[in-house]
Design goal:
Strand content: 5-15%
Radius of gyration: 53 Å
Number of strands: 9
Largest sheet: 4 strands, mixed
Distance between the termini: 135 Å
Strand order of the largest sheet: 4-1-9-6
Structural class: alpha+beta
CATH class of the largest domain: Mainly Alpha
Shape: rod-shaped
Amino acid sequence: MKKQLLVLAACTLAFSACDMTGGKQDAFVQERDSLQRIINEKDTELDDILGVFNEVQEGIRRINEAEGRVTIAEGNPESASSKSVIHENMEFIKEAMQQNRDMIAQLQEKLKNSSIKNTKMQKTIENLQAQIDAQSARIQELEASIAEKDALIESQGEAIAGLSNDVASLTEENRAKAEKVQQQDKELNSAWFVFGTKSELKEQKILDKGDVLKSGDFNKNYFTKIDIRYDKDIKFYSKSARLLSTHPAGTYQLTKDKQGQYELHITDPQKFWSVSKYLVVQVK
């Protein structure tokens, strides 16, 4: 470029030193204008090439920045915000890399068709292409890493879902078992008592011909259910009370309250109910 300017200046000085008259002056003007056009064309070509060159470099810089953001976000792939950052930046990188490839192809075509033959410029374009190829390789590795982590997260999610189902199933099973054990325990510690006059007990077939609970169809609904672990005192609201069912001596006390009404105090529940889980008391 500088050589061309020197040539133009030398020509100008040479023609200035001569007697510029007539056709010689016209020839000088035409040659000067022709040289100026050539210089202008080369300047335009060079500006065009440098403009594309700068765009490619800027694209490479922006891709490197996006790659850095993806690498940071990849450190926490489970986060919803990290997934969004990775997705957005990977989309940007793919578009930017395609644009860079297209611009490199433009540069090569422009340099091929240009009157400027510069080996350094060609070498620079080749270096740009090498940078883009290296970026492309890194991005492919990054995509593979992201895909591998996504697959691992999905697999872990399925495993966690399966474990959650197992836990829920075990929880329900344990709850059912606990309820069953509780119910069995309640039944084991259940007992029934009834008190009534002789005629009432006969009417309910609890007392039949002097025998207690011998009839198979006595009215069980007439009895009151209790828990032998907690219900140890039973009031009869009568001044006359006699146990008709069999219970070991020494396991209870039959006493009177302040009103002179009988009440039963069970002192050893397990032994008291060991013979029969049904207590029958005749009152008046």
